[in-house]
Amino acid sequence: MAVAGAIFGAAFGGWINDKYGRKKSILLADILFFIGAIVMAAAVAPWMIILGRIFVGLGVGMASMTSPLYISESSPARIRGALVSTNGLLITGGQFLAYLINLAFTKTPGTWRWMLGVAGVPAVVQFFLMLSLPESPRWLYSQDKVKEARAILEKIYPANEVEQEMQALQSSIEADKASEVSIGHGFISKVKHIWGNDVVRRGLYAGITVQVAQQFVGINTVMYYSPTIVQLAGFASNKTALALSLITSGLNAVGSIVSMAFVDRFGRRRLMIVSMFGIIVCLIALSVMFHQASNHAPAVSSFESLHFGRNSTCGSFLNAYEPSNWNCMSCLKASSDCGFCANGDSKYHPGACLAATDAVKGMCKGEHRTWYTKGCPSKFGFFAVLLLGLYIISYSPGMGTAPWIVNSEIYPLKYRGIGGGIAAVSNWVSNLIVSETFLTLTEALGSSGTFLLFAGFSTIGLVAIYFLVPETKGLQFEEVEKMLEKGFKPSLCGNVKEDDSK
């Protein structure tokens, strides 16, 4: 429900950004987030938690496209990428911190109420700090507040660069006003004519491509379901799975620091292409690893299963045509009512396929055996977790932050809110599709097939990024517009050439 709310938050956020400015959009996002956190903490029924999640989602969706936009418009071009990457670092660092905070609340009275309610604190802090910050100078200039825009630019740029920035803004605004004569001033008019504008259309091709690709590499399956994936790799303990998921979120934050250091040196496009190659290799390796883990899962022993009594044995196993061919994965896939109780001497020896009830689980653990319901004992489990870490390291510096940087600088000023909003909606819709289908895919295709599918999506994304996404490193916003107006085509070395034929 939070992701669904984020879709609408991003959609309305684009209009609010253009109409009322970046600062007011962030303040509104803080209010929505605070309301959602309080509603969830005070919930007396499930519908209140759902309502709170929707409010939180609206705030997250609005902030997700506004924050990078606000930062980029208030930053000098030479360090713009690094400053927008800071936004990514604080998001991933916040995720890691949230894991730790929730862990601290597990043993306090009213555990989940504190977990959900404390999320309102950052929103309050940001709201009051945001009151002291200025509006985006580029938005102010577009609203004919020239003196206010100049005053803010004088605080950001050296004195000798302010006039140059003002002239670039003036030419950009004049071009926008000229286009408005033919398309009109309203929001609906802009949307209707958006695909007829070469600059905006090419910007949207790039912006939507990177946002959809960011999600279809499968990142949020790892972030949302990392404890489940770790269990699929053969780690049965919930505590172990949660501890390892902390590591994945920590690596995500570290990757954001790498992005800050290199995004303005090597460029957004090159960083994303290198990132995608690393992601594809890791996903294919994960697919192979999970396939091997499945093939080498411990066998199911009839003697071990009947050791707990016929009534405790999984019904699917008892009625199987060739039970001697069963292994742990066969047991778990047969039915959600089946669980695997590992051998007492070694978890890699043949074990028991039992009914997945609390009583039977207690009997299994009573004999100091390990109980499995998601994955099986595997000698490959450590390597699977290692590959998950490498996948995060490949993803975070490039595909984790660069798509938001690209979308904060690829659109003309008048269309920056609408363009960023459309791209953010595509991101959250893709997020919802991937996260909602992951568990179903693992049941239908298995873990190996699911990761291989994401490798295929990532390959398509890599090709699309290569052909559709230009490099914007170090360019003024107005220079990006001129590049898109002329058109571009990729070169073999990863840079972008202007297409003079267009």
Tell me what the structure shows:
- By secondary structure, the chain is mainly alpha-helical.
- The protein has three domains: 2-133 and 184-290 and 382-498, Growth Hormone, Chain: A; 143-183; 297-372, no CATH class.
- 73% of the residues lie in helices and 3% in strands.
- It is built from 22 helices and five strands.
- It has helices spanning 2-20, 22-41, 46-73, 80-105, 111-117, 120-130, 137-142, 146-156, 159-183, 187-193, 198-216, 219-232, 238-266, 268-295, 302-306, 315-318, 328-334, 358-366, 381-400, 402-409, 416-468, 477-486, and strands spanning 338-341, 352-355, 371-372, 488-490, 496-498.
- The strands form two sheets. A three-stranded antiparallel β-sheet has the order 2-1-3. It has a two-stranded antiparallel ribbon with strand order 4-5.
- The protein is elongated, with a radius of gyration of 26 Å.
- It is found in: Membrane.
- Its main location: membrane.
- It is a multi-pass membrane protein.
- It comes from Rehmannia glutinosa.
As for the number of domains, it is 3
What is the CATH architecture assignment of the largest domain?
Up-down Bundle
Identify the CATH class of the largest domain.
Mainly Alpha
The proportion of residues in beta strands is under 5%
Structural class: mainly alpha
Order of helices and strands: HHHHHHHHHHHHHHHHHEEHEHHHHEE
**What Rg do the Cα atoms give?**
26 Å
| Strand line-up of the largest beta sheet | 2-1-3
Mean pLDDT: 85
- Kindly, what is the distance between the CA atoms of the first and last residues, rounded to a whole number of angstroms? 44 Å
Most strands sheet: 3 strands, antiparallel
Helix content: over 70%
> Count of helical segments?
22
The fourth-level CATH homologous superfamily of the largest domain is: MFS general substrate transporter like domains
Shape: elongated
Kindly identify the CATH topology of the largest domain.
Growth Hormone, Chain: A
How many beta-strand runs? 5
Low-confidence stretches: 498-502
